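dumping this here so i dont lose it
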């Protein structure tokens, strides 16, 4: 089976469609949460995901759009976008987002939006947090999103310490004996100073993982955000990837 693994679409339909078109043949999508929030096309992104065989986890922005968490935990721009998303969501998108699990185990993979320890909220953004999280899942590999930054974190078999491996785009890596936490990056709002959409291909037969980046029409998403009056900062950040 060949999986298109992605996260943090954030209602950016142009980026999501570009990724699907670029991915080549795949059997299913594994989406690690935050389908909506920030971007201009929440219902359309839910609909596109549902066109494919898929697994999808709940992210904090999906919960925010459902009113399942306190918006005061968000900054002003994220809160404005979440309130707008709440108003825009169709009944069927609402039902879909409401049905999502916050943690799944599939074969050798544990899937969560943030982390296996705190699936909705925790950011695995350094080796210390990663180190602790290796004790919170039992499979060899864990896939997460939430930081919007592609990365591989490897647990050293000898000393248990955690090491960061930078993604090498377009070069499949073999999933071997080492336990890994892997983040495919964000489709719809990258934050690693690279505005291209990020995603990954998991080949579960060859047991390889490949990080990828693809340019999309950022200006189109930005103009749709302006049409809807979404916050200026959220519009601007897309072209820089922060
Ligand atoms: Zn996110």
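and the seq i came up w/
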């Amino acid at each position: 089976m060949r999986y298109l693994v992605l996260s943090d679409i954030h209602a950016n339909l142009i980026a999501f469609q570009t990724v699907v078109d670029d991915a080549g043949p795949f059997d299913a999508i594994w989406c690690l949460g935050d389908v909506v929030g920030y971007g201009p096309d929440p219902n359309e992104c839910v609909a596109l995901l549902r066109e494919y065989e898929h697994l999808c986890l709940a992210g904090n922005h999906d919960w925010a759009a459902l009113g399942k968490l306190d918006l005061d935990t968000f900054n002003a721009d994220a809160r404005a976008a979440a309130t707008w998303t709440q108003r825009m969501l169709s009944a069927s998108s609402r039902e879909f987002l409401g049905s999502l699990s916050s943690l799944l185990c599939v074969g050798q993979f544990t899937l969560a939006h943030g982390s296996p320890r705190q699936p909705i909220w925790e950011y695995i953004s350094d080796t210390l947090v990663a180190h602790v999280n290796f004790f919170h899942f039992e499979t060899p590999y864990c896939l997460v999103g939430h930081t919007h930054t592609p990365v591989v974190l490897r647990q050293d078999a000898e000393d248990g310490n955690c090491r960061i491996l930078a993604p090498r785009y377009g070069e499949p890596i073999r999933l071997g004996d080492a336990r890994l936490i892997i983040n495919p990056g964000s489709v719809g709002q990258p934050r690693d100073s690279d505005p291209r959409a990020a995603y990954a291909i998991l080949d579960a037969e060859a047991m390889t993982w490949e990080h990828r980046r693809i340019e999309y029409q950022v200006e189109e998403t930005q103009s749709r955000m302006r049409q809807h009056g979404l916050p200026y900062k959220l519009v601007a950040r897309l072209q820089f990837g922060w």
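The longest strand covers residues 197-203.
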